[in-house]
Amino acid sequence: MYAKSKITSKGQVTIPSDIRKALHMSEGDYLIFEAMSEYEVNVRVMKSKPLSSLLGVLKAQENEASFDEIREQAREEMAERKLNQKAD
Fold first, then answer.
1. Is residue 16 within 8 Å of 5, Cβ to Cβ?
2. Handedness of CA 30, 32, 43, 6 (dihedral sign)
3. Cβ proximity of 5 and 15 under 8 Å
4. pLDDT 10s per residue in the chain (88 long)?
5. pTM score over 0.70
6. Cα 83 to Cα 79: distance, rounded to the nearest angstrom
7. Cα 11 from Cα 30, distance rounded (Å)
8. Which residues have C-beta within 8 Å of that of residue 3, sequence separation ≥ 6?
9. β partners of residue 33
């Protein structure tokens, strides 16, 4: 598939809709440009995904401490350090 687009004075280009549809491009996606020669450029699409799309990707191990347990342990350790500093 071929399509033509004109460069504006600010260096901007509109990607023709047929190309955007064929590559499943949407707002927020990135284009990666690689200069191959003086008159040739390779362009790739990098899909942007919201950070929320990563939720649940990593599975927690069964023996892993909960956030509340970790927080409580940190509080206890900080209190112990303060007591040790006063004793010195």
1. yes
2. positive
3. yes
4. 889 999 999 999 999 999 999 999 999 899 999 999 999 999 999 988 777 777 777 776 666 778 888 889 999 999 988 888 877 6
5. no
6. 6
7. 16
8. 16, 18, 19
9. 43
- The separation between the first and the last C-alpha atoms of the chain, rounded to the nearest angstrom, is 77
- Residue 18 identity (one-letter amino acid): D
Q: Which amino acid is at 66?
A: S
Task: Return the pLDDT at 59.
Answer: 74
Using left for φ > 0, alpha for ψ between -120 and 50, and beta otherwise, residue 56 falls in left
Q: DSSP letters of 14-39?
A: PPPHHHHHHTT--TT-EEEEEEEETT
